[in-house]
Amino acid sequence: MFVANYMDRVNLGFAQDQLRADVGLSAAAFGLGAGIFFIAYAIFEVPSNMMMERFGAKIWLTRIMITWGLVATAMAFVSSAEMFYALRFLLGVAEAGFFPAVIYYFSRWLPDSHRGRATSIFLMGSGTATVIVGPISGALLEMHGLWGHSGWQWMFFIEGVFSVVLGFVVYRFLDSGVEQATWLTDDEKHGLVAVIDTEQEERAGERSTAQVSRWKLLADPQMLLFLWIYFAINVALYAVTFWLPSIVDDIGGLSDFQVGLLTSVPWLCAIAAVYVSGRISDRIGKRRPILVTLLVIGGCGTLLAVFVSPWVGLGALCIAAIGFKPASPIFWTIPQSYLDARAAAPGIALINSIGNLGGFVAPTAFGLIEDATGSTKGGLAGLTVVGFLAALSVLLVRGGGRNDRIRTRPVTAPVVTAPETTRGTALTVDSGTAGTAPAGA
């Protein structure tokens, strides 16, 4: 589901040239439409979560998928800038709440000791999507002219219909809860439900004892640094995601399929970098130096792309992806260690909601810069500045040790001992679309 979700979100970048030519969109208009998705997503995420609690994860997950697939399919019929903006906004409305719904679903299936690794596997969907969306979208774009329709129309229609069909398949096979799992014995069901319910009761007791408002968190200078750093990371990631196909197309003489294949290369490099940086981060236990290094690498990659030929520029964007993509999971280990347990939930939600607005700013600003200068080089130079400033900001962040936390009133909670088969090391991961928390976070 997440692979299809991410594909329908970012395939717009591959349709850019054909879509802009057919509909008459400027670079700024395209960037605004690409970014307006994130405004809708931020507005409707909380209402979607409330509806999920009412209808249940299974129904709500499939509802989200089917409706986003329908909107993605409708993108094939865009005929004006206004319709483009409206459908991108509706896509954000339809997708809002997907990730929290999945996390809620995991919380009713797995104890804490296993939930983190399950979420990490789930989040690999975004990395997988960035690799496969290029070749698939490129191949569909080459259907240009078939039955009188443009390639971008075929791309949106087929990829959108795929999500709709997958939504119905998911509803057929997705078990609502542990009790409905035919592949578990009765003893396994009762034991698993008992552990999960006990953990839920413990967390509920902690939440009722201490509450931390987002306004209080905003008064903390370290939280403001976290907000800015994650915002900057998202600006860099989504700018590269939406404009990479256009930059690769500047090489010239490439078919749409070849452009799609080449755009997957930076993300293949990025997936390897996510794994390696996570292992190194866990091994040495020092997150800030690694995050600074990654942001500097990303900034150097975009800076190099400004001054070199398009082919060498593709290599430079590989360097940028190697820096910016792993920065997100490494970043999340820092606020997790800084925030007290009762401040973690609202703190992470605040960082995620504000930081994801970088997905609106990045393509919008990139489009405006291209309209003003006639080139993407100004946008790439801007990403360099953003990356370097974020790296400098990380140096101001405290280490997140025991004495550096945002404190709340102490809570006395019962100790829960899980059965031997459920013990392990849980991860805590980002609730956004940017990456996977490394093991041991």
TrEMBL record:
Domain of life: Bacteria
Cell compartments where the protein resides: Cell membrane
Matching Gene3D superfamilies: MFS general substrate transporter like domains (1.20.1250.20)
Keywords, sorted A to Z: Membrane, Transmembrane, Transmembrane helix, Transport
Keyword Transmembrane attributed: yes
Keyword flag Transit peptide: no
Protein name, UniProt field: MFS transporter
